[in-house]
TrEMBL record:
Gene Ontology terms describing biological process: transmembrane transport
The entry's keywords: Cell membrane, Membrane, Plasmid, Transmembrane, Transmembrane helix, Transport
Gene of this entry: aglG
Membrane topology: Multi-pass membrane protein
SUPFAM superfamilies: MetI-like
Pfam families reported for this sequence: BPD_transp_1
Family: Belongs to the binding-protein-dependent transport system permease family.
Residues forming coiled coils: none
Localization per Swiss-Prot or TrEMBL: Cell membrane
Descriptive protein name: Alpha-glucoside transport system permease protein AglG
Record-annotated membrane-spanning stretches: 27-49, 90-115, 124-146, 158-181, 202-225, 231-253, 260-281
Domain of life assignment: Bacteria
Domain ABC transmembrane type-1: 90-281
């Protein structure tokens, strides 16, 4: 047998073993991903099932017993939405979250464009200082800002919450968008300037249309933060008629008004909105974060 034939026979014998090894790796990877999905989704499933169970069923059996004897009730959602004020709190959460998201994306994009595409003295120092201040805990500014808004008479309105939420996230948004804006080819921007385009026109007609994915990731991130915040709305709005869903659910947990199943229904309402958002838009979130993290 020649050397070429011996080598061919060795390759033929190795190929089945290589294919088997790759198949086993794929099976192990898929099994690990499936296990993580089950671990992550089980608490959400238990919460969802409990919202359709009566108080007596929940006190006697575990939530998994619903798959053996399914007796759904809708009274938990009715009580959560109308009797405990969760329905009004959902509207308040939307009113707090949507302007916060829009303002964060707009101001972050403007700041990142100025730092990445405009040349002025102190630009690098300003960027480094902004990044450095992100390590400070946000709780440090709450008391001084509360005193300020008390002095100007804005407490008890949505305005302080909008300002605080945007102020805490805009530095990170600028940092995220800076990398992506810097990676846009300079020739494209210079060609627009040669054609007579002003800086606002370059920003709105060139930079923003090219940055859809990273802007979407920032919007999703800010939506999750603003929707789930408890401390800031509790400090500046209290637990009155303007309280968002997180404050209302916390109040229900403390007072146990309506029972455990009503509390689970209210909690699921607060969870389902960001859950659907992040699951449906996860590819844009990952693409935008990677786009903002990698330069060039």
């Amino acid at each position: 047998m020649s050397a070429i034939e011996s080598r061919r026979a060795a390759l033929i014998s190795v190929r089945p073993a290589s294919k088997l090894g790759n198949r086993l790796k794929r099976i192990a990877l898929h099994s690990a991903v499936l296990l993580l999905c089950v671990v992550w989704f089980t608490p959400v499933l238990s919460l969802f099932v409990t919202t359709f169970r009566s108080e007596s069923d929940s006190s006697l059996t575990g939530w998994w017993h619903a798959f053996i004897e399914w007796r759904p009730v809708l009274s938990n959602y009715v009580e959560a939405m109308y009797l405990t004020g969760v329905g009004r709190s959902v509207v308040n959460s939307i009113v707090l979250t949507v302007p916060t998201v829009l303002g964060t994306v707009l101001f972050s994009a403007i700041g990142a464009f100025a730092l990445a595409r405009m040349r002025f003295r102190g630009r690098i120092a300003l960027f480094l200082a902004m990044v450095g201040f992100q390590v400070l805990p946000p709780q440090l500014v709450l008391v001084p800002m509360l005193k300020f808004f008390l002095a100007v008479g804005l407490t008890g309105t949505f305005i302080p919450v909008w300002i605080i939420e945007m102020g805490l996230t805009v530095p990170f948004g600028i940092f995220l968008l800076y990398g992506f804006f810097s990676s846009i080819p300079s020739d494209l921007v210079e060609a627009a300037r040669i054609d007579g385009a002003s800086e606002p026109r370059i920003f709105f007609q060139i930079i923003l249309p090219l940055s859809g994915a990273v802007l979407a990731s920032l919007a999703i991130l800010q939506f999750m933060i603003a929707w789930n915040h408890l401390l800031i709305p509790l400090i500046f709005l209290g637990s009155g008629s303007l309280s968002p869903l997180t404050v209302q659910v916390a109040s229900l947990a403390q007072t146990n008004a309506g029972g455990l199943n009503t509390l689970t229904a209210a909690t699921f309402i607060s969870v389902i909105v960001p859950l659907v958002l992040i699951v449906s838009l996860q590819k844009y979130f990952v693409r935008g974060v990677l786009g903002g993290a990698v330069k060039g």
